[in-house]
Design goal:
about 140 residues; alpha+beta; Alpha-Beta Plaits; four-stranded antiparallel beta sheet; 7 helices; about 40% helix; about 20% strand; globular; binds adenosine-3',5'-cyclic-monophosphate
């Protein structure tokens, strides 16, 4: 058992298309546990903090504009191998590699408007969770 926590964001396209429930249900059905959940407008400051490693890339400005354009949903998830399992459920960033059955493979054709974000490693998961949630917003239960 490798118990991990991770951050998922339903991006503005997922909220606009009414896919919040569809997306959340996939993590729940897998057996992962939601420990934090909220709908919010992502501030530019926080979006830039989350995507700091992408700064300077050609798609960076478009990404920040997109992520701050409309509400997002932040989800804190806990479970066995949660980091890699969530990324498997989400599918690849490249729409030509995201296979049917994954969220991106089923619902997206675009590399920017790709519905979900998920942390890629333990260290980033903890720092990304701290950007979106205060400690008291995360629940501990069995
Ligand atoms: P995400 O998992 O949120 O992490 C970085 C985001 O940058 C990625 O999903 C995409 O939405 C966006 N992006 C846009 N263009 C590219 C690209 N060429 N390569 C990687 N990420 C990109």
């Amino acid at each position: 058992m490798v118990l991990e926590r991770t951050l998922v964001l339903v991006k503005p396209d997922g909220v606009e298309r009414g896919l919040i429930g569809e997306i959340i249900s996939r993590y729940e059905r897998k057996g992962l546990k939601l420990i934090g959940l909220k709908l919010l407008n992502f501030s530019r400051v926080k979006a830039e903090e989350l995507y700091a490693i992408h700064k300077g890339r050609p798609y960076y400005e478009k990404l920040i504009e997109f992520m701050t354009s409309k509400p997002i949903v932040a989800i804190a998830i806990k479970g066995n191998n949660a980091i890699d399992l969530v990324r498997l459920i989400n599918g690849e960033t490249d729409p030509l590699k995201s296979v049917p059955g994954s969220i991106r493979g089923d619902f997206s054709t675009d590399i920017t408007y790709n519905l979900v974000h998920a942390s890629d490693c333990k260290e980033n998961a903890e720092s990304e969770l701290a950007i979106l949630f205060s400690p008291e917003e995360l629940c501990s239960y069995n």
